[in-house]
Sequence to fold (389 residues):
Amino acid sequence: MSNLEYRTAGESHGQGLIALIEGLPAGVTLDMELANREMARRQGGYGRGGRQKIEKDTVNILSGIRRGRTIGSPLAIQIANRDWRIDEAPEVSRPRPGHADLAGSLKWLTTDCRETLERASARETAARVAAGAVARSLLIPFGIQCVGFVTQVGPAVANIPVDASPAELIVARDGNDVYTADPAAVGPMVGAIRKAKEDKDTVGGIVEVRVFGCPPGLGSCARYQDRLDGRLLMAIGSIQAFKGAEIGLGFGVASRPGSQVHDEIDFDPGLRDTPCLGFTRRSNNAGGLEGGMTNGQPVVVRGVMKPISTLLRGLDSVNLATRQRERSDYERSDVCAVSAASVVAENVVAFEIARALVEKFGGDTLAEIEAAWKFYLGAARLLGTQEPA
Ligand code: EPS
Fold:
């Protein structure tokens, strides 16, 4: 009952995509404007291909709601595909290096890579964004905000202040079509994508998600499955074309001594009513997570996306039907989808935060979660101020 989960189904050129969310408590007012805005943002971003001109992704909720509010039953969400031609779509026999084509064809014993690529396609991320963007309606009453943005495209690197507020990040990010929060990086990022296009090539990059307003104690060190850092790394690392994920300083911790990694602790009674409960940190290298649990600081998670594996210029490959060397197949594709990936990352992270929230404060209704939240924060604020019982 208090286990929030989702699954997806659907192929890139099938009838549509499905997300099935189970475990959302009753009484949550769904912000459909937010959900559909996220769907539209995922379709955008500089460097996207022709498919997004065909589709108009919107969230169609088939079950689990009444008068705009959840009723505790599973939510089935449908996103229709306009470009539905899976049976007519041509066979693909020259696997694209980097795509699922070869591995999947060997796995499912076929020389037609389409049998794999239809599901492996990043079109599936429309369903993941739908699930995350709907579930984050549960975060709204608690003031938890997730903001995703692009920090690197090819060689172009953004410089985004560590102490930027959510509002500052959103305004900066929404002011350009590469979705970076550093206005100075927009030109170089657009330039990197243009150059890749001219070269008939593709380009990857890095995305970051910051989560503001999490109370301490989401996730757990008690069971490895419940560690929130592991879950976030899984959520990010499982996005199509992602090759790495990190939290806080991430791989940067390797080259520094402990004294320059760990975030020293102070206490400021004036901040007792904020998510950190007054326990401030001089840095946030831990990315808001220690021992697999939130510590009251913003959660910071990053992921790296490889360049899209469909190159207009092709790459050397082998025809699966003849075993002769040929150039890889070309399908209509994107030159760069890092901006879209930042939207996917933001929403898969939001889902994991919502899941952890339900686990800690869970109940059948939003009211029960709110009561548990209030009780916990009240008790946490009194910690150390009372005589032991
Ligand atoms: C995508 C739709 C796809 C691709 C892309 C993501 O549409 P189509 O293949 O019909 O052009 O643009 O998928 C890939 C990058 C991939 O490698 O499969 C979408 O809606 O995000």
About this structure: Residues 12, 49, 51, 83, 99, 121-123, 125-126, 308, 310, 331-334, 337 surround EPS (CB under 6 Å). DSSP finds ten helices and 17 strands in the chain. The mean pLDDT is 97.
